[in-house]
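Lab notebook, bench 4. Still working through the backlog of constructs that have no structural model yet. Next entry is a single chain of 90 residues. Request: give me the structure tokens for it.
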Amino acid sequence: MSKVTVDTGILNKKELETIQAQQLKLNTITQEIGYLEAKKHVFLHEIASANEEVDSYKKVLEEKYGSININLETGSWERIKEKDVEDKKD
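Model written out:
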């Protein structure tokens, strides 16, 4: 392939189609990343909301049962002993 020596010109059809296809691919990927980032933002807000709900309900259960550990499969619970709470602080 010889090097072009003029200062202006027009790409041939294949060259133009190749660079247009590449640019379209980059634009599509960039748009998809933006979409995913926006979805991520929404999910992060949903996580924060869900965590607030969990914390709020934990307080309800703690008022009723005191400090307990709950088996999420069976619903059984066991009171947390003061020694266990102090051990976790250390």
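Notes after review: The two ends are 73 Å apart (CA to CA). The mean pLDDT is 93. Flag for follow-up if needed.
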